[in-house]
């Protein structure tokens, strides 16, 4: 399996786990060492993150995975680093729902309360740079009691500050997944955007406006991890995203749910997709994707101008 100029295989994964403490660690604080945002992940001043075709990846497909790094969600980032990234990359290449994946991670916090509510890696096809950037994320463990986290910040950044050859050259959208256990923020103010990105846009944006903007270039999903007040929060996501708000009953199965979602949009049968996983994974995946339509345009996002 080739990822960019590198080779992703069991040997790469073995090297990653042997040269880091990720496999032996028991908590995210042992894996993610940053005590502030790293310069390379700071979106302030970034013009574009680019997903470009290459000789090795002639039909690149950008996939953005936004991880909630607030206090209640550090375990998810830890599990992605410990095993989930291996599962995600391996299953995308084995099942082939998309071509030539370029993966970007984002760290998501609360723009109202946190110092670093958005972090952005580069789009990477190589396993080593991708893991290095993932482990550089600052798990701020912030968030506040305002009933939401800033999940729309990745929408704004992706719509304004990414360039993707899949859309430019082939008219094919990328994919954007946010992951969290809280409600979406209903508005992103120009002052908040300035505090994160370093410039002042002309106005505020509602969540629906941002969704319209980002949906021109990306298929957008949110993976809602069920906790207390889960139905109330999930309903807020469903009001915004329709069935693209996916219910996650086991956060350790997030990589499989992402791959299964890509399979659905590739036109595969949902029952066959769910049955392609074993044991509890099949049950979790089936619950998450049951409302999705095989046609991308029918999944709650129709004909954005």
Would you kindly provide a written description of the structure presented here, covering whatever features stand out?
- The protein is 37% helix and 18% strand.
- The chain has 305 residues and is an alpha/beta fold.
- The protein has a 6-stranded mixed β-sheet with strand order 6-5-4-9-13-14, with helices on both faces. Strands 1-2 form a two-stranded antiparallel ribbon.
- Strand 1 (2-3) and strand 2 (6-7) form a beta hairpin.
- Helix 9 (254-265) crosses helix 11.
- The model is unreliable at 1-7 and 298-305 (pLDDT under 50).
How are the secondary structure elements laid out?
Elements: E1 2-3, E2 6-7, H1 10-19, E3 49-51, E4 61-68, H2 74-95, E5 101-108, E6 118-120, H3 127-135, E7 148-149, H4 152-161, E8 162-164, H5 165-170, E9 174-180, E10 183-184, E11 187-188, H6 190-197, E12 205-206, H7 207-214, E13 218-225, H8 230-241, E14 245-248, H9 254-265, H10 270-275, H11 279-289
Parallel strand pairs: 3-8, 4-5, 4-9, 7-10, 9-13, 13-14
Antiparallel strand pairs: 1-2, 5-6, 11-12
Helix pairs in contact: 2-9, 4-7, 9-11
């Amino acid at each position: 399996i080739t990822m960019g100029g590198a080779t992703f295989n069991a040997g790469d994964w073995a090297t990653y786990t042997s040269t880091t403490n990720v496999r032996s660690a028991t908590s995210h604080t042992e894996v993610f060492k940053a005590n502030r945002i790293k310069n390379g992940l700071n979106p302030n001043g970034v013009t574009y993150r680019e997903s470009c075709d290459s000789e090795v990846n002639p039909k690149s497909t950008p996939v953005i995975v936004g991880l909630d790094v607030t206090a209640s969600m550090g375990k998810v980032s830890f599990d992605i680093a410990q095993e989930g990234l291996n599962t995600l990359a391996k299953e995308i290449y084995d099942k082939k729902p998309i071509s030539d994946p370029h993966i970007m991670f984002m760290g998501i916090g609360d723009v109202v309360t946190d110092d670093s509510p958005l972090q952005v890696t580069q789009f990477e096809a190589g396993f080593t740079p991708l893991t290095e950037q993932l482990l550089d994320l600052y798990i701020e463990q912030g968030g506040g009691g305002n009933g939401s986290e800033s999940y729309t910040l990745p929408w704004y950044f992706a719509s304004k500050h990414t360039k993707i050859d899949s859309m430019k050259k082939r008219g094919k959208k990328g994919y954007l997944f946010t992951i969290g256990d809280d409600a979406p923020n209903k508005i992103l103010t120009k002052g908040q955007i300035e505090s994160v990105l370093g410039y002042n846009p002309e106005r505020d944006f509602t969540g629906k406006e941002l969704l319209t903007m980002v949906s021109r270039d990306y298929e957008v999903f949110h993976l809602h991890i069920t906790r207390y007040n889960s139905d109330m929060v999930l309903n807020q996501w469903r009001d915004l995203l329709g069935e693209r708000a996916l219910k996650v009953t086991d956060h350790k199965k997030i990589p499989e749910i992402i791959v299964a979602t890509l399979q659905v949009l590739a036109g595969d049968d949902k029952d066959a997709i769910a049955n392609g996983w074993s044991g509890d994974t099949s049950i979790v995946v089936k619950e998450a994707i049951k409302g999705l339509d095989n046609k991308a345009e029918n999944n709650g996002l129709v004909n954005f101008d």
